[in-house]
């Protein structure tokens, strides 16, 4: 199962806990060009706030969609030629425990140079 934080409603003023929900959804296998990532770390940045508004300068999260967050994780299933199971990657993985994403949208991390976190 994938546990994720979703936008329940657009915040009016400062965001509050009731603007969000935590939900569990089944994991699905990657289709051609996709990878499934087990997310290990998220970067909680100020830009996330701009994505909660209806006209965010960094894009807008749809109500019911996972909250935007950059992060790192380990590929646990791949249907993308550029990434294999066990590779570490970074990208816009959203606020969730697992991310099913296009492999081309991720950057492979060289764990010999630095820790993935």
Characterize the structure shown.
With 117 residues, the protein is mostly beta strands. The protein has one helix at residues 47-52; strands at 2-7, 20-25, 34-43, 70-78, 88-91, 98-102, 107-109. The chain is globular and about 45 Å long.
Question: What are the key terms here?
Answer:
single chain; 117 residues; mainly beta; five-stranded antiparallel β-sheet; 1 helix; 7 strands; 37% strand; globular
Walk me through the topology.
Layout (H helix, E strand, L loop, with lengths): L1 E6 L12 E6 L8 E10 L3 H6 L17 E9 L9 E4 L6 E5 L4 E3 L8
Antiparallel strand pairs: 1-2, 3-4, 3-6, 4-5, 5-7
Total number of helical segments?
1
Largest sheet, order of strands side by side? 6-3-4-5-7
Multimeric status of the protein: single chain
| Overall spatial form | globular
Number of strands: 7
Distance between the termini: 23 Å
Q: How much of the residues is beta strand, in percent? A: 35-45%
Pattern of helices and strands? EEEHEEEE
Helix content: under 10%
The structural class is mainly beta
Question: What's the pLDDT, averaged over the residues?
Answer: 94
Rg from C-alpha positions?
15 Å
Task: Sketch the major β-sheet.
Answer: 5 strands, antiparallel
The low-pLDDT segments are none
């Amino acid at each position: 199962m994938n546990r994720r934080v979703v936008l329940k409603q657009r915040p009016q003023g400062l965001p509050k806990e009731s603007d969000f929900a935590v939900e569990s959804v089944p994991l699905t296998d990657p289709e051609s060009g996709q990878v499934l990532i087990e997310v290990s770390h998220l970067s909680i940045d100020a830009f996330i706030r701009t994505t909660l508004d209806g006209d965010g300068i960094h894009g807008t999260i749809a109500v019911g969609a996972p909250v935007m967050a950059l992060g790192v994780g380990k590929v646990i299933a791949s249907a993308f030629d550029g990434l294999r199971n066990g590779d570490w990657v970074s990208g816009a993985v959203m606020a969730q425990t697992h991310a099913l994403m296009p492999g081309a949208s991720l950057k492979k991390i060289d764990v010999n140079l630095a820790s993935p976190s």
